[in-house]
Batch of 2 targets.
Target 1
Amino acid sequence: MNITLDEAAKERLSAHLGADKILLLTFEDGVGPYSQHAMIHMQTQFSINVISNEMEKADYDEKIPSEIGDFWIKGYSKEDLQAEMRIKFNPRLSTFSLSGEGGMIDDNLGFIDFTKN
């Protein structure tokens, strides 16, 4: 598995990253401290989350490489993902999307930086 990001997505996400930060690609199933399933629109399947090294990530047991770092995932969420994926940022709508070789996975990928209080 691999995730490629367009330039706009790289720029937008890189602003939130650093040596002490971890990227998550969260399957919105209500499991774990970062799943917002009950708090956001039901159509959202995944979200991008940023956490610090000290924050809990026990539910995230596998990782997918990208140009800006590994995205940690809940291993069982791989069944809803594809081998080659792409994250794009739409500046007009200020939204991310996640697609794969088989088509769109999530056209409104959420983003939460949990390191910002």
Target 2
Amino acid sequence: MSQTEGARLFRETWIAGVHQHFPGEPKAGYVTPWADTPQWEREAAGSVYAQVRQFIEISDGHTSRLSREQKGRFVATCWTAQMFKHFDDPKPGYVADWPDLPSWQQETDADIFEAIEKALS
């Protein structure tokens, strides 16, 4: 899977996770389709996909033994690094640490990791 395809997988899994886990009606920006996703966000999604893919590969597939929380934390940390890359002064919510993220976002981040695992198997 190319990095662009991986970025799309990331975004599609994010949207599905928001629909599944978000309480109430999500903000429009949370579920913006790929075609309307800003370029910086596409690049960030591709970078995080590549980091997760490499982590799975160098772990020789043993990431399946990680807990959902560990998987989600990894995605969240990679995403935070991208926010610092793309914004000089990102909003606090964009760079919140794992314990400060809402549960819907934690679940969605774990879903993203698991979707990448599944795509690589």
